[in-house]
Design brief:
Largest sheet: 7 strands, mixed
EC number: 2.1.1.166
Strand order of the largest sheet: 3-2-1-4-5-7-6
CATH superfamily of the largest domain: Vaccinia Virus protein VP39
Structural class: alpha/beta
Strand content: 15-25%
InterPro entries: RNA_methyltr_RlmE (IPR050082), RNA_MeTrfase_FtsJ_dom (IPR002877), rRNA-MeTfrase_E (IPR015507), SAM-dependent_MTases_sf (IPR029063)
Number of domains: 2
CATH topology of the largest domain: Rossmann fold
Subcellular location: Cytoplasm
Number of helices: 9
Number of strands: 7
Oligomer: single chain
CATH architecture of the largest domain: 3-Layer(aba) Sandwich
Protein name: Ribosomal RNA large subunit methyltransferase E
Radius of gyration: 18 Å
Function: Specifically methylates the uridine in position 2552 of 23S rRNA at the 2'-O position of the ribose in the fully assembled 50S ribosomal subunit.
Amino acid sequence: MTKPPIGGNRTGRKLGQKVKKGKLKASSRRWIERHINDPYVQRAQLEGYRARAAFKLLEIDEKHKILTGAKRIIDLGAAPGSWSQIAAKVTSSTDTDPRVVAIDFLDVDPLPGVVILKLDFLDPSAPDALMDALGGTPDLVLSDMAAPTTGHRQTDHIRTMHLCEVAAHFAIDVLGPGGHFLAKTFQGGTERELLNLLKQNFRQVLHIKPASSRAESVEMFLLAKDFKGRREGISDHADLRAEGQDFRDEREDVTEHDEE
């Protein structure tokens, strides 16, 4: 069972620490203070996960069992790698028999049992590169991708939803029957067209806000369970990738995936 931090602290570190003003901007100081006082950050350090995002996946799995029985997993937008850590463990993936492939345009430090591709998922070569590296059909496609924020909530929502949509088409292209798809999205309404697509191809579609996702964060997760199997007539998603060219270059400025 995935338990929340007890009393907000399992590392012995005192919560409520302050950062000296110094030369830091107020916004940067607030982010650092929130980070060092976050019980999930502390628990991730204690348990050896690279980021607090690990507990979002573990919480979702605790209720929905999407990791159970998974033999091969693809992790989109993997940096810094906490979801891939979990994926490697549940699939018993090793360097000699890798069953997890992760992709990100940011650097990801090596992980045992994980093939890491430094490549933008919107690159046209990404789908084939992922499948070639995996060497088989995935049971689960994970996506923690998010577009760089602009400060304009509606724009940020649209851009991240585009990534979610491209990831969904990829999942439909590659998953085996009974497989699952989990992707980050933002509150503000999932586009009806995407929901309809997922409902046509999966037996259950849910929006989830795990407890480890900060209350003030607008992030949510879209879970599509039990893939029905590849059907004829599903359109190719190359056009969606082309639409993403406008902000591919801007994503190079992103240095932190797991701020939420």
